[in-house]
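FIELD: query
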Amino acid sequence: MMETQRLILYVALGLVLMLLWQSWIEYTTPTPVPTEQAAAPGTSQGDGVPAVDDGAVPSAPDTPQATTAVGGEIDTGDAETARGGRTIVVETDLIRAEISTIGADIRKLELLDYSVDVDHPDRSLSLMQDAAPDIFIAETGLLGRGHGFPNHKSEWTIEGDRFEIGAGDDAVQVTFTFDGGDSLTYRKTYRFPRDSYLIDVEYEVDNRSDTEWNGFQYAQFVRTEVAEDNSMGFLGRLPSYKGGAIFTPEERFQKIDFGDMRDEDLARRAESGWVSMLQHYFVGAWLPVDAGPYEFYSSVAGINTAYPKYRIGYKTLAPVTVAAGASGTLGSDLYVGPKEQDRLKEAADGLVLTVDYGWLTFIASPLFWLLSLIHELFGNWGWSIIWLTVLIKLVFFPLSAASYKSMAKMKNLQPRLKTLKERYGDDKQKFQQEMMKIYKEEKINPLGGCLPIVIQIPVFIALYWVLLESVELRQAEWFWLADLSVKDPYFILPILMGVSMVVQQRLNPAPMDDIQKKVMMALPLVFTVFFLFFPSGLVLYWVVNNVLSIAQQWFITNKLQAKT
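FIELD: result
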């Protein structure tokens, strides 16, 4: 009996400590703080000032076809040139993008179906932007030797300033032009499909010269590392990953965080895969479409400035050849948007892994699949969580029933055990022996009450990550809750959860040890305090689970008492 209570206590406290440790690590992780040093030329030192790139361009791979020593890095210009250029606005049904004629790159991107928060439903979430401190932009360019190659610092031309998808159009297309000299013309075309966050990016090389053209493509993200808002307090912001990641068929999904980029530059060769920048609920990913091999790379610029820029991207290693008098293309896909799992699965192999459920993915993924299936029936994520809880409870019903029967029998033995304790006093060894003898006579398994708790803990943790990582639950409403992915603003669910734990304890046999009894009495209060800051969807699951457990335990206990 005593050992059973200790095991239950240790398991419960272990769960609390694990979640507390996760939050503590996130809370105490150092984040970049603006330094007093002067920013390098071409960088921004203040908030809201457009960031100027320092001209870092990947070097062109060495190949037999590219031997003329002209160099892969074209003139990047001075800071004023880099800050200039026109801004082209492109709008579809889902996104609004701003493309600069410098580099013909996306510098800003808003998600029209996602608001900043529940308090500002009319303000679209800005996922990409080029203003410090939170810089996040996508860049591409061409590399090679022997000709002029436009990179992310080259100035392109385009007619028009605004492009919108038409009512009957499947996509809107935007084409920039660059004169490479030597009878070379480059066209960079963006294709923004309707109802999609996947953008086609294609370079067309029109080679009217008398020599063949050999070139490579690169695509990269540039991002700064900024401190997250922790205004909600110590446990107000639950941990989520923000940084780079790559995917290869051999090593699968691998995170490359800002610390990794500071420690050393990434240089990984792969035949296929993709590279991305992640943040909570959203992802930007470059998805190569041309044949490999590729090199995934990273670098850090301005490490001693206020806002160092972290680059992660890929470049092709096999040259594309365009014969004299011919044309050729190089392309890439860009996914920039929410981690909606159906869209991620369609976009690229393994991209759904950016929804990071951690080491319990094998449990969390089926849970989310089932949760989504229920949502299709009920159309509300709150009710879906409730019905998912009911289904989980049904799955564990045989184990729970056996546990509650064992606990009910132990509760009926409380008077005998109390007498036994009074008889043997401080002789704990003798007390344990006599207690186990009674359990054997009554055919009671003292560990039977622990098994359902131990088994359900991985499910609980997996569901924790499902509710934390699934963008589908972001700003999902249920009665007074405006967002199931954040804490209950009125703390109604955590209080109900604490009350339900007290009721459960009344149904369970009380510990014989006074210290254990006091600790067990304190657990509902401890859990209530921690759950004040957990995602309300998770607390909803726990409340419903406790209520169902109470009903099941009450029924079994009364049924056994009626037989005695």
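FIELD: remark
The chain has 13 helices and 19 strands.
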